[in-house]
């Protein structure tokens, strides 16, 4: 699977050239790009593996305890699909601070990309499909 190979961008074949160029620049800067339709497919693929709502027996990964409260907050925002720019608005932090947090979160969790962080957050029950 492309996720395990470290892919950071998932777009449809019908993407407009300007959007493709913007996505390439985004990935090159260290962020991930996933089209909304692809996100829906990912959720449908992995939803059956997620803990049920209200399931208090869901196993939390021990690595979560290594994150600071702010890093956990940023991880949840990333997992909900927000860009760094949007997270800055939501958490009232600078974009460089968000990038710093993401840069610390990934190695703490043993992950390489934001996409892997999203999958991690869903698999551990930090976030659930809406």
Protein model, in words:
By secondary structure, this protein is mainly alpha-helical. The mean pLDDT is 80. Helix content is 52%, strand content 3%. Strands 1-2 form a two-stranded parallel ribbon. α1 links the parallel β1 (9-10) and β2.
Q: Give the radius of gyration.
A: 15 Å
- Strand fraction band? under 5%
Coarse structural class: mainly alpha
Oligomer: single chain
What's the topology here?
Blueprint lengths: L8 E2 L6 H12 L4 E2 L1 H11 L22 H11 L4 H8 L3 H15 L4 H10 L7
Parallel strand pairs: 1-2
Concise summary:
With about 130 residues, the chain is mainly α. The chain has helices at about 15-30, 35-45, 70-80, 85-90, 95-110, 115-125, and strands at about 10, 35.
For the structure shown, list the relevant keywords.
130 residues; mainly alpha; two-stranded parallel ribbon; 6 helices; 2 strands; 52% helix; 3% strand; globular
């Amino acid at each position: 699977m492309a996720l395990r190979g470290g892919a950071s961008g998932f777009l449809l074949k019908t993407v407009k050239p300007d959007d493709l160029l913007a996505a390439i620049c985004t990935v090159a800067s260290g962020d991930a790009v996933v089209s909304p339709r692809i996100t829906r497919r990912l959720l449908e693929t992995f939803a059956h593996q997620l803990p049920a709502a209200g399931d208090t027996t869901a196993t939390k990964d021990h690595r979560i305890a290594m994150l600071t409260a702010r890093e956990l907050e940023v991880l949840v925002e990333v997992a909900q699909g927000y860009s760094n720019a949007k997270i800055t608005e939501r958490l009232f932090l600078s974009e460089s601070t968000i990038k710093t947090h993401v840069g610390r979160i990934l190695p703490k969790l043993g992950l390489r990309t934001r996409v892997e962080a999203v999958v991690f957050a869903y698999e551990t029950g930090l976030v659930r499909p809406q």
